Amino acid sequence: MSTHSEPSSSHATPRDRSPASAEDESLLPTVVAALSAAGERLVGRLSTAPRLASREDIFAALAANDAISLEAIREPLSRARPEARWVEDEFERGPLPPGEWWVPDTVEGNINHVHGMTDWCVTTTLVRDNEPVLTVVHLPLSGETYTARKGAGAYLGTRRLQASTKAQLDSAFVATCQAAPGEDGETHRRIGQSVTAMLGSALVLRVSVPATLQLVQVAAGRMDVFWQYNQIGSGLLAGALLVAEAGGAVTDTRGNRWSLASEDFLAAAPQLHAGAVGVLSTVR
User: Fold this and answer.
1) Residue 19 — pLDDT band, cuts 50, 70, 90?
2) Rounded distance, CA 215 to CA 228, Å?
3) Where do the H-state alpha helices sit in 136-225?
């Protein structure tokens, strides 16, 4: 996927003023407004009181949040881009058919929201022929909105983002996370092995969900490396575009170009990418 930086890339590409890019730029305010509306609804549903007594309670609360958020997002974005189809399943894996697709994560970090925690957001990415070309990540509780367009940079509000300039892995703040509930035993093994390997190489390691909130930190240069086993597009596309447009490297854990067909995912500050690949390549 050409949107995603090669390991040697350290700067966002120049602004693309093609007709498609100009259309995408004009689309951004509509996406931001839709996600802001969804975020307001979700803030109103946030409760810090213990209220979940069973697995059934958890999944019912997750589904209710998703439905309420999607209701705010779908109509305005479908009106703005009527030809674009929608990825209905947030756990969708693998490449998409040709054309334009909206890939939302209606409550990224939904498990945190339903447990009364603050680490959640609302995201939507426009994918064109399997390339993410526009993304918005809105954090309703802080009011922060991250945006990126292919070839036009990544931003927090009006401030352009730049990936970390660290050059040594032993100074790096790194992170990983579980992609979804119910991963298989092989994925669990790889996660555990990678955590052990990175604990011996990096300065500090964080393990938490959701992926997007780790990736916005890499794009902003606050964190340095993020990797994940398994491929769930809604949790990776937004952050992948933000990191790439902030000058970071986005590949698989072996250093190959990342796409929706890849088996795993790595985003890193450009000068730390080779070191991260070296560590993660020991995971079999």
Assistant:
1) low
2) 11
3) 185-199, 211-219
Place of tokens 């990544």: 154
Where is 219: in which H helix or E strand? helix 211-219
Q: Output the CA angle 118-120-125, nearest 5 degrees.
A: 160
- Which among 176, 163, 282 has a CA at the least distance from the CA of 226? 176
Which residue has 């803030």 as its token pair? 43
- CA 160/CA 88 separation, integer angstroms: 31
Positive or negative CA dihedral for 34, 41, 49, 52? negative
pLDDT at 18: 52
- Note whether 34 and 125 are within 8 A (CB): no
- Name 102's bridge partners: 86, 126
The C-alpha angle with vertex 215 and arms to 4 and 207, in degrees rounded to 5, equals 130
Length in residues, the chain: 284
Token pair, residue 135, equals: 């993304």
- With beta carbons less than 8 A apart as the criterion, state whether 282 and 198 touch: no
DSSP SS3 for 71: helix
Instruction: Label residue 98 exposed, middle or buried (CB < 10 Å: 0-12, 13-18, 19+).
Output: exposed
Flag whether pLDDT at 60 surpasses 80.
Answer: yes
- Indicate the residue type of 149: R
Sheet holding 121-128, edge to edge: 85-86, 100-108, 121-128, 131-139, 144-149, 154-156, 159-160
